[in-house]
Amino acid sequence: MLRIYEPSEAEKIYYKLKDKLEKKYHPNDYVVINPRTKAYFVAETSVEAMKKARKRYPKGELFLAQIGRIAGFMK
After folding, report:
1. Which residues, other chains included, contact 58 with Cβ-Cβ below 8 Å and sequence gap of 6+?
2. Each residue of 19-43: pLDDT tens digit?
3. What is the value of pTM for the model shown?
């Protein structure tokens, strides 16, 4: 059975930012997006990016992606 995948709101935000992020940052960098506020945080490692995001948004869902690749949600 074929399952149709519906992108999350955070993925949609990522794809809207994708070109801008790929032009401005290194492809090995990571971005964390708060899907509620659309704020994003970029760093060289996923841990750094998550720390930046959690400092501002200590609770709630965050979306993690490596620039150019999708990774997933973090709670």
Report:
1. none
2. 999 999 998 999 999 999 999 999 9
3. 0.81
